[in-house]
Amino acid sequence: MEVRPLTGGLGAEIIGADIRSAEQFGEIQEAYSEYSVIVLRGQSISPEDHLKFARQFGPINVNRFFKPVDGHPEIATVLKEKNQKQAVGEGWHTDHSYDQRPAMGSILHALEMPPYGGDTLFASMAAAYDALSPKMREILDQLSAVHSSRHVFGADTLDSEAAKSGRLGNAKAATQEAVHPVVITHPLSGRRGLYVNPVFTTHIQGLTNDESAAMLGMLYEHCKKPEFHCRVRWQVGDVTMWDNRATWHKAINDYHGYRRLMHRITVDGVALT
What we know:
- The chain is 21% helix and 29% strand.
- It has helices at 25-35, 47-55, 125-130, 134-140, 150-153, 161-164, 209-223; strands at residues 2-5, 12-15, 37-40, 60-61, 68-69, 72-80, 105-112, 120-124, 144-148, 177-181, 183-185, 192-194, 201-204, 229-232, 239-243, 247-251, 260-267.
- Strands 1, 2, 3, 4, 5, 6, 7, 15 and 17 form a nine-stranded mixed β-sheet that branches. A three-stranded antiparallel β-sheet has the order 14-8-16. A three-stranded antiparallel β-sheet has the order 10-9-13.
Protein backbone atom coordinates (compact mmCIF):
# COMPACT_ATOMS: atom_id res chain seq x y z
CA MET A 1 0.00 0.00 0.00
CA GLU A 2 1.53 3.30 -1.14
CA VAL A 3 0.31 6.78 -0.18
CA ARG A 4 1.14 9.52 -2.71
CA PRO A 5 0.32 13.16 -1.82
CA LEU A 6 -1.65 14.96 -4.53
CA THR A 7 -0.45 18.45 -3.59
CA GLY A 8 1.70 20.12 -0.97
CA GLY A 9 -1.21 20.73 1.39
CA LEU A 10 -4.23 18.57 0.64
CA GLY A 11 -5.15 15.14 -0.65
CA ALA A 12 -3.44 11.82 -1.37
CA GLU A 13 -3.99 8.85 -3.65
CA ILE A 14 -3.51 5.37 -2.24
CA ILE A 15 -2.21 2.61 -4.48
CA GLY A 16 -2.46 -1.07 -3.63
CA ALA A 17 -5.10 -0.79 -0.91
CA ASP A 18 -8.23 -2.88 -0.55
CA ILE A 19 -11.01 -1.30 1.49
CA ARG A 20 -12.30 -4.81 2.26
CA SER A 21 -9.11 -5.57 4.22
CA ALA A 22 -9.45 -5.20 7.99
CA GLU A 23 -5.64 -5.23 8.27
CA GLN A 24 -5.29 -2.13 6.09
CA PHE A 25 -8.02 -0.06 7.70
CA GLY A 26 -5.72 1.56 10.27
CA GLU A 27 -3.35 2.84 7.56
CA ILE A 28 -6.25 4.11 5.47
CA GLN A 29 -7.76 5.90 8.47
CA GLU A 30 -4.40 7.48 9.28
CA ALA A 31 -4.04 8.77 5.72
CA TYR A 32 -7.57 10.19 5.83
CA SER A 33 -6.80 12.04 9.06
CA GLU A 34 -3.57 13.46 7.63
CA TYR A 35 -4.65 14.43 4.11
CA SER A 36 -8.42 15.12 4.48
CA VAL A 37 -9.01 13.74 0.95
CA ILE A 38 -7.94 10.21 -0.02
CA VAL A 39 -8.38 8.48 -3.38
CA LEU A 40 -8.27 4.70 -3.11
CA ARG A 41 -7.51 3.52 -6.62
CA GLY A 42 -8.75 0.36 -8.29
CA GLN A 43 -11.41 -0.89 -5.88
CA SER A 44 -13.61 -3.77 -7.03
CA ILE A 45 -16.39 -3.68 -4.45
CA SER A 46 -20.09 -4.31 -3.94
CA PRO A 47 -22.54 -1.95 -2.20
CA GLU A 48 -22.22 -4.19 0.86
CA ASP A 49 -18.43 -3.73 0.84
CA HIS A 50 -18.92 0.03 0.50
CA LEU A 51 -21.24 0.08 3.52
CA LYS A 52 -18.99 -2.13 5.64
CA PHE A 53 -16.04 0.19 4.99
CA ALA A 54 -18.07 3.29 5.83
CA ARG A 55 -19.39 1.86 9.09
CA GLN A 56 -15.84 1.52 10.39
CA PHE A 57 -15.75 5.32 10.55
CA GLY A 58 -19.15 5.73 12.22
CA PRO A 59 -22.93 5.51 11.77
CA ILE A 60 -24.34 6.15 8.29
CA ASN A 61 -26.13 9.44 7.65
CA VAL A 62 -28.97 8.66 5.24
CA ASN A 63 -29.30 11.52 2.74
CA ARG A 64 -32.80 12.98 2.62
CA PHE A 65 -32.71 14.35 -0.91
CA PHE A 66 -30.67 12.13 -3.25
CA LYS A 67 -32.28 9.16 -4.97
CA PRO A 68 -31.20 6.02 -3.08
CA VAL A 69 -29.63 3.00 -4.71
CA ASP A 70 -32.19 0.24 -5.26
CA GLY A 71 -32.11 -2.11 -2.28
CA HIS A 72 -29.65 0.09 -0.38
CA PRO A 73 -31.41 3.12 1.15
CA GLU A 74 -28.20 4.17 2.95
CA ILE A 75 -26.41 4.74 -0.38
CA ALA A 76 -27.17 7.82 -2.49
CA THR A 77 -27.10 7.77 -6.29
CA VAL A 78 -24.95 10.51 -7.83
CA LEU A 79 -25.85 10.48 -11.52
CA LYS A 80 -25.76 12.61 -14.64
CA GLU A 81 -27.20 11.03 -17.79
CA LYS A 82 -25.75 11.79 -21.22
CA ASN A 83 -28.74 13.95 -22.17
CA GLN A 84 -28.72 16.02 -18.96
CA LYS A 85 -27.00 19.40 -18.63
CA GLN A 86 -26.85 20.03 -14.87
CA ALA A 87 -24.58 18.13 -12.50
CA VAL A 88 -25.48 17.94 -8.82
CA GLY A 89 -22.86 19.66 -6.66
CA GLU A 90 -21.42 22.12 -9.19
CA GLY A 91 -21.04 24.89 -6.58
CA TRP A 92 -18.37 24.91 -3.87
CA HIS A 93 -19.93 23.36 -0.77
CA THR A 94 -19.56 21.23 2.35
CA ASP A 95 -21.96 18.29 2.63
CA HIS A 96 -24.63 18.54 5.33
CA SER A 97 -23.40 21.79 6.91
CA TYR A 98 -27.11 22.57 7.49
CA ASP A 99 -27.34 19.77 10.10
CA GLN A 100 -26.85 20.36 13.82
CA ARG A 101 -24.23 17.59 13.77
CA PRO A 102 -22.70 17.92 10.29
CA ALA A 103 -21.49 14.85 8.46
CA MET A 104 -17.97 13.70 9.23
CA GLY A 105 -17.14 12.48 5.75
CA SER A 106 -18.44 11.34 2.40
CA ILE A 107 -17.29 8.21 0.55
CA LEU A 108 -17.87 8.21 -3.22
CA HIS A 109 -17.45 5.14 -5.46
CA ALA A 110 -17.00 5.65 -9.22
CA LEU A 111 -19.02 3.13 -11.27
CA GLU A 112 -19.31 4.73 -14.71
CA MET A 113 -17.10 7.60 -15.87
CA PRO A 114 -16.96 9.68 -19.06
CA PRO A 115 -13.87 9.27 -21.28
CA TYR A 116 -12.69 12.66 -20.04
CA GLY A 117 -13.77 15.27 -17.48
CA GLY A 118 -15.99 14.83 -14.46
CA ASP A 119 -13.20 15.64 -12.00
CA THR A 120 -13.83 16.84 -8.44
CA LEU A 121 -12.05 19.81 -6.87
CA PHE A 122 -11.33 20.08 -3.14
CA ALA A 123 -10.17 23.02 -1.02
CA SER A 124 -8.49 22.99 2.39
CA MET A 125 -10.30 25.19 4.89
CA ALA A 126 -7.42 24.95 7.37
CA ALA A 127 -4.91 26.18 4.81
CA ALA A 128 -7.26 29.00 3.85
CA TYR A 129 -7.66 30.04 7.50
CA ASP A 130 -3.91 29.92 8.14
CA ALA A 131 -3.30 32.23 5.18
CA LEU A 132 -5.48 35.02 6.63
CA SER A 133 -3.96 37.86 8.61
CA PRO A 134 -3.86 37.51 12.41
CA LYS A 135 -6.33 40.40 12.76
CA MET A 136 -8.81 38.81 10.34
CA ARG A 137 -8.51 35.47 12.14
CA GLU A 138 -9.20 37.25 15.44
CA ILE A 139 -12.38 38.82 14.01
CA LEU A 140 -13.63 35.58 12.45
CA ASP A 141 -12.98 33.57 15.61
CA GLN A 142 -15.80 35.49 17.31
CA LEU A 143 -18.47 34.96 14.63
CA SER A 144 -21.15 32.35 13.89
CA ALA A 145 -23.02 31.69 10.65
CA VAL A 146 -26.39 30.20 9.68
CA HIS A 147 -26.59 27.24 7.28
CA SER A 148 -29.81 26.04 5.60
CA SER A 149 -31.06 23.28 3.27
CA ARG A 150 -34.24 25.11 2.22
CA HIS A 151 -32.93 27.19 -0.67
CA VAL A 152 -30.99 24.25 -2.16
CA PHE A 153 -33.34 21.28 -1.77
CA GLY A 154 -36.70 22.91 -0.91
CA ALA A 155 -39.87 23.74 -2.83
CA ASP A 156 -38.21 26.56 -4.79
CA THR A 157 -35.99 24.00 -6.55
CA LEU A 158 -38.79 21.78 -7.92
CA ASP A 159 -38.34 23.21 -11.43
CA SER A 160 -34.67 22.24 -11.58
CA GLU A 161 -33.49 19.53 -13.96
CA ALA A 162 -32.23 17.45 -11.02
CA ALA A 163 -35.66 17.47 -9.36
CA LYS A 164 -37.62 16.86 -12.56
CA SER A 165 -35.39 13.92 -13.48
CA GLY A 166 -35.80 12.34 -10.04
CA ARG A 167 -32.13 12.68 -9.08
CA LEU A 168 -33.20 14.91 -6.18
CA GLY A 169 -36.50 14.76 -4.30
CA ASN A 170 -38.30 14.96 -0.96
CA ALA A 171 -38.33 18.77 -1.05
CA LYS A 172 -40.78 18.90 1.87
CA ALA A 173 -38.00 17.54 4.11
CA ALA A 174 -35.75 20.55 3.42
CA THR A 175 -36.37 22.18 6.79
CA GLN A 176 -32.88 22.03 8.28
CA GLU A 177 -31.19 25.10 9.70
CA ALA A 178 -28.11 25.19 11.91
CA VAL A 179 -25.74 27.73 13.44
CA HIS A 180 -22.03 26.92 13.49
CA PRO A 181 -18.91 28.93 14.30
CA VAL A 182 -17.34 30.60 11.27
CA VAL A 183 -14.07 29.05 12.45
CA ILE A 184 -14.11 25.58 13.99
CA THR A 185 -11.58 23.43 15.79
CA HIS A 186 -11.37 20.15 13.90
CA PRO A 187 -12.67 17.32 16.12
CA LEU A 188 -9.76 15.00 15.24
CA SER A 189 -6.73 17.12 14.37
CA GLY A 190 -7.44 20.12 16.61
CA ARG A 191 -6.53 22.37 13.66
CA ARG A 192 -8.49 25.60 13.17
CA GLY A 193 -10.32 26.06 9.89
CA LEU A 194 -13.07 28.03 8.17
CA TYR A 195 -16.57 26.58 8.24
CA VAL A 196 -18.71 28.56 5.80
CA ASN A 197 -19.53 27.64 2.19
CA PRO A 198 -21.21 29.35 -0.79
CA VAL A 199 -24.06 26.83 -1.21
CA PHE A 200 -25.48 26.28 2.28
CA THR A 201 -24.34 29.28 4.37
CA THR A 202 -26.99 32.02 4.32
CA HIS A 203 -25.53 34.74 6.55
CA ILE A 204 -23.29 35.64 9.48
CA GLN A 205 -25.13 36.34 12.70
CA GLY A 206 -24.98 39.84 14.17
CA LEU A 207 -24.02 41.58 10.92
CA THR A 208 -26.23 43.56 8.55
CA ASN A 209 -27.11 41.89 5.27
CA ASP A 210 -24.57 44.01 3.42
CA GLU A 211 -21.85 43.37 6.00
CA SER A 212 -22.51 39.64 5.97
CA ALA A 213 -22.49 39.45 2.17
CA ALA A 214 -19.23 41.40 2.01
CA MET A 215 -17.54 39.25 4.65
CA LEU A 216 -18.67 35.98 3.12
CA GLY A 217 -17.80 37.16 -0.38
CA MET A 218 -14.27 38.00 0.73
CA LEU A 219 -13.85 34.60 2.39
CA TYR A 220 -15.21 32.72 -0.62
CA GLU A 221 -12.85 34.45 -3.04
CA HIS A 222 -9.97 33.76 -0.66
CA CYS A 223 -10.83 30.04 -0.40
CA LYS A 224 -10.97 29.70 -4.19
CA LYS A 225 -7.22 30.36 -4.50
CA PRO A 226 -5.61 27.37 -6.24
CA GLU A 227 -2.86 27.01 -3.65
CA PHE A 228 -5.47 25.59 -1.24
CA HIS A 229 -6.79 23.03 -3.76
CA CYS A 230 -6.34 19.53 -5.08
CA ARG A 231 -8.07 17.89 -8.06
CA VAL A 232 -9.23 14.28 -8.25
CA ARG A 233 -9.24 12.75 -11.73
CA TRP A 234 -11.52 9.78 -11.44
CA GLN A 235 -11.11 6.29 -12.82
CA VAL A 236 -13.75 3.56 -12.70
CA GLY A 237 -13.43 1.71 -9.40
CA ASP A 238 -11.96 4.62 -7.45
CA VAL A 239 -13.25 5.28 -3.94
CA THR A 240 -12.65 8.83 -2.72
CA MET A 241 -13.30 9.89 0.86
CA TRP A 242 -13.16 13.47 2.10
CA ASP A 243 -13.51 15.22 5.44
CA ASN A 244 -16.48 17.58 5.42
CA ARG A 245 -15.16 19.44 8.48
CA ALA A 246 -11.88 20.28 6.72
CA THR A 247 -12.73 20.81 3.05
CA TRP A 248 -14.95 22.25 0.37
CA HIS A 249 -15.59 20.36 -2.85
CA LYS A 250 -17.27 20.87 -6.21
CA ALA A 251 -18.08 18.72 -9.24
CA ILE A 252 -16.70 19.80 -12.63
CA ASN A 253 -19.48 19.61 -15.23
CA ASP A 254 -17.42 19.30 -18.44
CA TYR A 255 -18.57 15.97 -19.90
CA HIS A 256 -21.85 16.73 -21.70
CA GLY A 257 -23.06 13.82 -23.81
CA TYR A 258 -21.61 11.19 -21.47
CA ARG A 259 -22.96 9.30 -18.44
CA ARG A 260 -21.37 9.55 -14.99
CA LEU A 261 -22.61 7.28 -12.20
CA MET A 262 -21.39 7.12 -8.62
CA HIS A 263 -22.56 5.78 -5.26
CA ARG A 264 -22.12 7.97 -2.17
CA ILE A 265 -22.26 7.11 1.51
CA THR A 266 -22.14 9.81 4.17
CA VAL A 267 -20.86 9.19 7.70
CA ASP A 268 -22.32 10.96 10.75
CA GLY A 269 -20.28 13.54 12.61
CA VAL A 270 -20.41 15.50 15.85
CA ALA A 271 -21.39 19.00 16.92
CA LEU A 272 -18.77 21.55 15.91
CA THR A 273 -17.11 24.12 18.16
